[in-house]
Amino acid sequence: MLRAFSLLFILTCCVSIASAQTVTKPIKLFNGKDLKNFYTWLNAPKKGEKPYGKNNDPEKVFTVVNGAIRVSGKVFGCFTTEKEYANYRLIVEFKWGTKTWPPRENATMDSGVLLHCVGPDGGAGGNWMESIECQLIEGGTGDFIMVRGKTQPKITVPVKKIGNQWYYDAKGELREFPPGRANWYGRDPNWKDVKGFRGKNDVEKPVGEWNTLECVCDGDKITNILNGKVVNAGIKATHTKGKILFQSEGAEILFRRIDLMPLKTEVAKKQPKEEKKKPKTEPKKTVKVGQEPEPPPVFDYSQTAPDRTKTRVEPVEPMQRPRLFGGRRPLERLFNLFRRR
């Protein structure tokens, strides 16, 4: 019996690992038209009523308007990816609407991106899943919150303490969360849960303007980047893979881009670079100041031309001038001949 249970546990772990997709190429989760790669989950519209559950949205909490996913926030719940993912760069473009709902109609507009979600839908308070949350809230976007389900997620963040709160500090002391929340580095110590709150160091843009949030999930490390600035980062996360969830939490919010990009390390593993062979070149010789340069090499011509010193040259006789009448004085001889006659 024990052996069978052990085998079942190993198989379950293998299936879980295989189900998480490592991102090796860009994935456009939101196609700008519908919720094709997602499903919805909604809790009860009122206390004591039955939850709406999965893919049941009679109040149109989730709709696509003008190329963006509009979350009304009227009912607590979420839209969640169909698949699980690991090792990726999540890029989200979002902006706040204007509408808020009870019980948070006068509170800061609130939502969140939940990473590495595991367990059943609604497993965390009936609304969401066990996960590590990158908080979306006025004045606090980029905070880490550990959303407990069947087990308690944990992460370690370098922080400094201001008052009774912990704030991200790349050079700070390492502290495991929970307990408490790991605030982004510039969250206002005097933050208040009132609609429209803005801190003096806020990186998030004003309500109605688009923001870009990036969550880089690399193994057990998570880095939150808001509008190009690293606002929070953690290591030793207990959860490293799972679904990705976007909250409906009492405030209107719109998402016009939800993309997954591969990490550079994953691209390198997938497509190794070919090494180009460089032609061999002789190292250049440098001449130091005051040093005479080396003389040019002497070419041995004896190896290419014959040795003419050993070649015999035959003398050439001068051309003989033809003689007339057998002598060197032909006119004199002819004159003497006529005198004798």
Describe the structure.
It is a single chain. By secondary structure, the chain is mainly β. The protein has one domain: Jelly Rolls (Sandwich). About 10% of the residues lie in helices and about 35% in strands. The protein is built from 3 helices and 21 strands. Strands 2, 5, 6, 9, 17, 18, 19 and 21 form an 8-stranded antiparallel beta sheet that branches. A 7-stranded antiparallel beta sheet has the order 4-3-7-20-10-11-12, with no helix packed on it. A 4-stranded mixed beta sheet has the order 15-13-14-16, with no helix packed on it. The longest helix has 18 residues. About 5% of the residues have low confidence.
Question: Sheet with the most strands?
Answer: 8 strands, antiparallel
Alpha-beta content class = mainly beta
Order of helices and strands: HEEEEEEEEEEEEEEEEEEEEEHH
| CATH architecture identity | Sandwich
Topology readout:
Layout: H1 2-19, E1 20-22, E2 27-28, E3 38-42, E4 53-54, E5 62-65, E6 68-71, E7 77-81, E8 84-86, E9 88-100, E10 110-118, E11 130-137, E12 144-147, E13 155-162, E14 165-168, E15 173-177, E16 182-183, E17 211-218, E18 221-226, E19 229-234, E20 243-248, E21 251-261, H2 264-270, H3 330-340
Parallel strand pairs: 1-8, 14-16
Antiparallel strand pairs: 2-21, 3-4, 3-7, 5-6, 6-21, 7-20, 9-17, 9-21, 10-11, 10-20, 11-12, 13-14, 13-15, 17-18, 18-19
